Amino acid sequence: MSRALDVAACQDLVASARWLDKIQQADNGCLLWVGFVHKGYGRVSVNGRAVTASRVALVAALGRDIASEKDVGHLCHDLAFAAGECEGGICIHRRCVNPLHLEEQSRRDNLLAGVSANAKKTHCPRGHELVEGNLSLRALPKRSCLKCAQERDQKRVEVIAAAHKMLGITQREYVRKYGRSLATAESILGRVSE
Asked: How many distinct structural domains can be found in the chain?
């Protein structure tokens, strides 16, 4: 869970020359962050903590922090994507800090708003439904199925167990020597069984 942002510090920052020097007006009404950018998003320091500039702008406008389970959605991106004017991914809209273009959204709604064709998928290739509770959001904007990840992890555990038993060593010794790669364990089992 992320720490709450200091609302007053965000409001002071947004009203400062430091902030205004880092934004540029675009023809579509976006206020684009031209300061430091990481993975397409403007980044700024608030009380020594690096956060997205869009979150700072939204917190300042709302007068409160956004909920920890929520994201900042870029309405300018959603509209441009729906109109076919934006391909998604790391696009210019990630840099927008115009509070009129920002909205507090659930993680699911933010993903489904149009970041990619992947965001429109309702099921993974193995047929598991991609719904809240079964989504891995570690590599945003890409989504992946938690059930598939759990199945892969379980298979890795089973194959490594078989490999270390076949070699006659402990699991700890196996991991030190060969690591936790499923492919390595399968290769060891394939070599020993030949």
From this structure: 2
